[in-house]
Design the sequence.
């Protein structure tokens, strides 16, 4: 079992937790729950990208993860600025 | 495998543990603020340990700096987002009040 196999296994486990988190996006009783789950999905996505960078040897994925990190912050802040009526 | 590789694998597994724990917390905890608590642990510690594990075998300085920058950005975003969501939930405005 070499290092690449371990990296792929880590990425798969992270993908599994993302799939479970999608259930909370679907059933979340309030919009805050849905946004929290989406934030966790974003962070897990960054983790998957970083681990896959080593596993499949595509160094540019690190920059994709950096863009993910920037956009996740913007999404959460835009959500909390929203008021009830203007959806 | 070398010592650095074992260290890296160990740190990666700790990071995965925090992600799994955060997801279980997000699914199982009873109310909104405790779910927020579970979520921020997964964000900060889980991604932190993943980045540390990958840093142990980073090919060059620029990749390492980018990894640490991603971690700092996510910590900043997660702390700010957690405060904003908690404030919004406590204030009870928006769609949360129904």
Sequence:
């Amino acid at each position: 079992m070499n290092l690449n196999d371990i990296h792929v296994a880590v990425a798969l486990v992270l993908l599994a937790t993302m799939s479970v988190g999608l259930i909370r996006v679907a059933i979340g009783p309030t919009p805050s729950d849905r946004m929290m789950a989406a934030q966790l999905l974003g962070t897990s996505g960054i983790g998957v990208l970083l681990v896959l960078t080593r596993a499949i040897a595509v160094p540019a994925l690190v920059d994709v993860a950096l863009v993910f990190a920037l956009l996740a912050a913007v999404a959460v802040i835009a959500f909390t600025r929203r008021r009830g009526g203007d959806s | 495998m070398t010592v650095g590789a074992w260290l890296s694998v160990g740190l990666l597994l700790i990071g995965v543990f925090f992600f799994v724990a955060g997801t279980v917390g997000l699914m199982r905890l009873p109310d909104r603020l405790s779910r927020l608590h579970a979520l921020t642990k997964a964000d900060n510690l889980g991604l932190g340990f993943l980045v540390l594990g990958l840093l142990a075998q980073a090919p060059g300085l620029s990749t390492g700096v980018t990894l640490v920058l991603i971690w700092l950005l996510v910590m900043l975003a997660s702390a700010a987002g957690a405060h904003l969501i908690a404030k919004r939930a406590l204030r009870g405005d928006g769609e949360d009040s129904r």
